[in-house]
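Backbone description:
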Amino acid sequence: MPSDPRNFRFPGEFRIKSTLDFERYFKEAQVKAGKYLVLRYIIDKENITRLGLSITKRGRNSVKVNRLKRLAREVFRINRNKIIPHLQLIVSFRKQLPAEVKFEELEKDFLNLLKLLNLLEIHHEKFIG
């Protein structure tokens, strides 16, 4: 029997959607850049761990922008249980991003950044130096 597709959803409560939240987090957040990603993060005890995406469309067509957003949401969804509670993350992509960046490369960059920032609850064997 195939698994229930609802188990793989990314519900709205895990997304940062409000313009006011984005403005606040951009103003107050700490920033760390990796090979592909730029993470802005803040601990907000009033909220569960959530993800916001800030992706410029300049120089990219909508197909590429939507692919990047899907990849970022999937990386977060799969690894959310490893992240400390109450973390608000805003993910941006570097301008020098390769046209066809792979999911595994983004996931590795994301987890390595979180590890460097001590934002993980558990340490995972995927980390590389």
Summary: The chain has one domain: 10-116. Residues 16 and 121 are 21 Å apart (CA to CA). The chain has a mean pLDDT of 84. The first helix runs from residue 19 to 28.
